[in-house]
Structures are given as C-alpha cells and as structure tokens.
Amino acid sequence: MKxxxxxxxxxxxxxxxxxxxxxYKKYSHVFFDxxxxxxxxxxxxxxxxxFDSVARLAxxxxxxxxxxxxxxxxxxxxxxxxxVNEKAFKSPVVVPKxxxxxxxxxxxxxxxxxxxxxxxxxxxxxxWHDAREYSTKNPDKxxxxxxxxxxEASKHMNIxxxxxxxxxxxxxIKDPELKINLGAVAKGYATELVAQEIxxxxxxxxxxxxxxxxxxxxxxxxGRENWGVGIQDPFDPSGMFETIFLHNLSVVTxxxxxxxxxVNGEIYNHIISQKTLYPADFMxxxxxxxxxxxxxxxxxxxxxxxxxxxGKEFLENYQNVGAIWYLMDGSIKATxxxxxxxxxxxxxx
Length: 349
Fold this sequence. Notes:
alpha+beta; eight-stranded antiparallel sheet; three-stranded antiparallel sheet; 8 helices; 15 strands
C-alpha cells in the first residue's frame, strides 16, 4: 500500500527576524510505528536536556495510547479496544479512563454528525481493512469486500448497543457481532492528550506532527507570532497548496490520498461511509482548524463523509471551527473564519 505517512506536511518556516535575540533553541524528535505513522515533535527549550525530557514523555504517552486504542492487536497487561471487542459482549469490561472517555465522547456526539462517523461500524471496517492489507501485498489479486458480507456486517453497527457504566467505568456490548473501531478519532484524541501535558511542561512552545494531525502550542520562540503549517497537495506528495499560520490550535486533514489501494484501475480510500458501505468520494481532502486535536480529527472525518454544501452548512453550528475543502473538480473552498490565517489569497465560499 502506498502510504504517505507524512501527508499534510508541516512547513516549518523558521526564518529569524534580523537582530532577533534568540534565548531558546529549537530541537526535534522523531519516532515511528506509533498509530501506524511517523510522529515529529519540534520545540523551543532552554537546553537539550529539557527538550529531551519532554519529548521522551510524549513518546511514552503516544505509545500507551497507541496500544490502548488498537482494535487489531492485544498487548500484555493492557485492556484495550481489542479486549473490549473480544470480551464485552459476555460481561462488562472495566477500561482505563482515557479509553472510556473517548468512547463516551464518540457516543455523545454521534447523533450530531449527520449520520457520518460511527465507531460501532468496526465489522464493516474490518472487511475493508483485510481487503486493503491483502491487496496491497498482492496487487495482482486485489479485490473489494463482498457486498453481501458488507451488508450483513452493517446489521451490527448500532452505537446504542454499546452500553457505558460511568460509575464503574465499564463497557458492555449487547450485540456479539458489533465491533468498535476508533481509527477515525484515536490519533487526534491521543495527540490532544499529549499536547495538554506539553503545554503544562517546561516547553510549551512546540508543534506536533502525528502523521498529518498537527497540534501547535505557544508561538515559536524565534520572533515569529505563529507556526506555519502546510497542507499537502493531493496530487503532489512533496507539495503544498496552502499554508496556515497559527498557534495554540490544531490542523487535521482527511484525504483520499492518505491510505488507499487500487482495484482494476480504481482507487479506494480508507474512509468508509456507513450509508453506502463504500469509501466516500465527495472530495480529495478536507482540513479542519480548531483548538482540540481530537475534535478536529472527528470533524475532518465527518466532513469528508459529507458533500461540500452539507458540510458547509453543518459547520455553521461550530463558530470556533474552520475548514478548507479540496474538491474533486480541483476547486478549493474555505470558511470565512480562517481566511486571515491563510498564506494565499483564497476567499471563503
């Protein structure tokens, strides 16, 4: 599978103003294989020891959340989504608070997302996951999931069958065939948890790039007011079609070029509609700008599953959320509330 792990590449525009006295130094740390992506942390700290301490903690936390939100693998001593899917239909499973809180959040907001994002459609997503994994390794035998199996799996994705007990922090699944999949929100949610720890550390000036999920902290300590975040051109993995200047905000992109495979010359991306049981094809990408990275991840997936006009109307209820759409005809749209953050002359529509 052609995975562009560094989709939505950050443009780290690190030009120092003339005469600017820099009291802090810029450091970076990169690690791999967490949330199936490359994660980069850049920060301004008084010294390398301070940066290394914060970066190590961030990497440890990302690794913990990666295991916690994983629905495909089990880990010794970890009660995660895999555990819940395997056991919670027999009796309630007590889970760590981070996992419980994320599932509760998804259940609470799901009715407000225009019948798009649904963490209970794991059985459907597994069929697509298996097809994509096999087809990537065996392109001459690439295949699509059987439609009858997809329809049967879709009978087992009622989110109300996920029963939460807040007092005991436990999860029970009424339908034995229902499987939870947090792939649409987990990375952003984890990024926000890590960002909050860094904001409260001795290095609050930072930027995290978690494979296209960007979270910025305080402004860079080099004289600039904002970080520059580049949004990848869907047709050029090394190019950007827009740059956003901001701090203490998140930028998350969902796109059809990020994780996909090919069958008989047709491209099938990884973002599956619960309405059609097939990948959405309304746009090439949508980018969300808001403070909370978990919310940004959730909304980018939801808007990718909506036609542009529906998504534009949907966002009218979110005053603190901005969006950029790269549509199938090549046109680019943006909400008015982020126009002044953009590096281009793009006007909202």
